[in-house]
């Protein structure tokens, strides 16, 4: 499918209660191409009234969907997995168009995102309860799982597909209905996903997709509506905090997948070539715009120069360009604001004394491009060691002892992912246990796996997605006491 054909066939209306409709007053908002800054297309701009109608539909469909046989729910997801996989090229091109990343990254996301539907189609039929006797012999304890009810999912732009399927998959498998508000920068992928689910036989009302340019105004009243039972959010910690406060007042179940500041530790006993390859993956997957991205490299001083030289050589080979160009390995950033953030953090590190080994200057011309950049000897006063850069910048700092490495790794409010390279199993276990994060990669630069529980601690969030844990977020546990 070529670019214009993709844009011509992608739905741009709201998917509201299973119908494709224009927004109230036919309102629309533009979606931009990060490679040029130009408008790609206009998309229906949901209003609070549209969102209220979507919630009406989710409530109306809720009981029947919850009572639908788990096998049937699973089969809808399985059919959607097959359709998504069959349309992988369309999805990949669309994601590259609206989000910017290089096509191989988009293809990888389609595979990853589709897997959540396959995984949760299989989990739908493994919903377990418990039957036991009270210790005092005074009765029986029956524990069962019931769907939470109507959920609101708010998703980010960096993985426009996978961050949706990782929520929609378990919600539908558990028997919940869901409203999805995609990021305003990348609504098209989610709308195409809604079409796939519709074609896969999802009953009307079970899912709505509400692109909007007024995220707070549209989701605020939903969070105040007692019929909504859960908020699942993926995005920045600042927005997550504000939403969690609001959700807390309404006593909503919440899942919060927030920002990260992943440390990547390289010990003096590491296989350095493997560590460099792992560093490339941990840094440049998704163009550096991943919550799991290695944000800072803490490297044993005895091997630091060799590591930095090898990393710089390999990062220099990344080719910056429009994501749709087959020669491109590094696409543009999402928008001008993100380009400014990366530019500011690199400038601040250099001003604080870091050595610039590669990149460090955005090219002139249209689009939101920033090159692969390596900073060495970054001092602890540099903001880049504590703030999420969300771009193709590797910031390296040295350490001398294991304790120093652990202290540096934990010197952050975040706690999502962490990585380490070492040949010592003892050290791997010791350091993994000491690091304050929800996920640790040992001699691996990519940890995301549909079958593993994904999520963070501290300011990186609450709850887990994927794995057998992911569906639990969409259940209430009910205890029934029997004589
Ligand atoms: N932990 C994870 O699994 C994970 C995954 C992907 C991205 N992220 C994080 O997401 C961030 C990047 O994504 P982003 O820039 O889209 O984040 P963001 O917080 O700006 O936006 C996320 C979503 O929230 C919406 N939103 C913004 N303000 C809102 C408000 N007041 N009320 C309701 N909704 C609102 C946005 O429209 C978008 O849909 C990074 O910090 C990244 O680490 C985390
Ligand atoms: O951006 C964060 C999500 C990344 C992932 O699921 O691998």
TrEMBL record:
Instruction: Establish whether keyword Isomerase is in the entry.
Output: no
Name the InterPro entries for this protein. Ald_DH/histidinol_DH (IPR016161), Ald_DH_C (IPR016163), Ald_DH_CS_CYS (IPR016160), Ald_DH_CS_GLU (IPR029510), Ald_DH_N (IPR016162), Aldehyde_DH_dom (IPR015590), Aldehyde_DH_Superfamily (IPR050740)
Task: State the UniProt keywords alphabetically.
Answer: Oxidoreductase
Residues of the active site are: 257
Which superkingdom? Bacteria
Q: Does the keyword Transcription apply?
A: no
| One Pfam family, short name | Aldedh
Q: Where is the Aldehyde dehydrogenase domain?
A: 20-480
Regarding protein family, the annotation reads: Belongs to the aldehyde dehydrogenase family.
| PANTHER family cross-referenced by the UniProt entry | SUCCINATE-SEMIALDEHYDE DEHYDROGENASE, MITOCHONDRIAL
What is the protein's name according to its record? NAD-dependent succinate-semialdehyde dehydrogenase
Q: What is the lineage of its organism?
A: Bacteria, Bacillati, Actinomycetota, Actinomycetes, Mycobacteriales
């Amino acid at each position: 499918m070529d670019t214009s054909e993709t844009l011509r066939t992608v739905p741009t209306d709201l998917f509201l209660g299973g119908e494709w409709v224009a927004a109230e007053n036919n309102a629309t908002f533009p979606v931009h191409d990060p490679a040029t800054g130009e408008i790609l297309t206009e998309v229906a701009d949901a209003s609070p009234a549209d969102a209220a109608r979507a919630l009406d539909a989710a409530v109306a469909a809720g009981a029947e969907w919850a009572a639908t046989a788990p096998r049937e729910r699973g089969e809808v997801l399985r059919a959607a997995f097959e359709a998504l996989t069959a349309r992988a090229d369309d999805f990949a091109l669309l994601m590259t168009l609206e989000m910017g990343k290089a096509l191989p990254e988009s293809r990888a996301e389609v595979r990853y995102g589709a897997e959540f539907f396959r995984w949760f189609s299989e989990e739908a039929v493994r919903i377990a309860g418990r039957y036991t006797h009270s210790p005092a012999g005074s009765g029986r304890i029956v524990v069962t799982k019931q769907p939470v009810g109507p959920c609101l999912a708010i998703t980010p732009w960096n993985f426009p597909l996978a961050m949706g399927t990782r929520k929609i998959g378990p919600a539908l498998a558990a028997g919940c209905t869901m409203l999805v508000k995609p990021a305003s920068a990348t609504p098209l992928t989610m709308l195409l996903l809604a079409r796939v689910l519709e074609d896969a036989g999802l009953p009307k009302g079970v899912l709505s997709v509400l692109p909007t340019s007024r995220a707070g105004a549209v989701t605020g009243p939903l969070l105040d509506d007692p019929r909504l039972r859960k908020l699942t959010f993926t995005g920045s910690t600042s927005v997550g905090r504000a939403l969690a406060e609001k959700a807390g007042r309404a006593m909503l179940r919440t899942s919060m997948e927030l920002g990260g500041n992943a440390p990547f530790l390289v010990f003096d006993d590491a296989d350095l070539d493997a560590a460099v390859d792992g560093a490339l993956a941990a840094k440049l997957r998704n163009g550096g715009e991943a919550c799991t991205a290695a944000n800072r490299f803490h490297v044993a001083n005895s091997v630091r120069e060799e590591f930095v030289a090898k990393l710089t050589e390999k990062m220099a080979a990344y080719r910056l360009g429009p994501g749709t160009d087959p020669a491109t390995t590094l696409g543009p950033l999402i928008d001008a604001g993100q380009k400014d953030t990366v530019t500011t953090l690199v400038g601040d590190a250099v001003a604080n004394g870091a050595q610039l080994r590669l990149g460090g200057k955005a090219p002139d011309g249209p689009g939101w491009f920033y090159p692969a950049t390596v900073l060495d000897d970054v001092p602890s006063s540099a903001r880049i060691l504590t703030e999420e850069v969300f771009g193709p910048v590797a910031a390296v700092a040295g350490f001398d002892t294991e304790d120093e490495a652990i202290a540096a790794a934990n010197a952050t409010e975040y706690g999502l992912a962490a990585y380490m390279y070492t040949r010592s199993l003892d050290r791997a276990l010791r350091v993994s246990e000491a690091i304050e994060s929800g996920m640790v990669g040992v001699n691996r630069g990519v940890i995301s796996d549909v079958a593993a529980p994904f999520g963070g601690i501290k300011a990186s969030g609450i709850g887990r997605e994927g794995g057998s844990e992911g569906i639990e977020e969409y259940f209430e546990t009910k205890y029934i006491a029997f004589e």
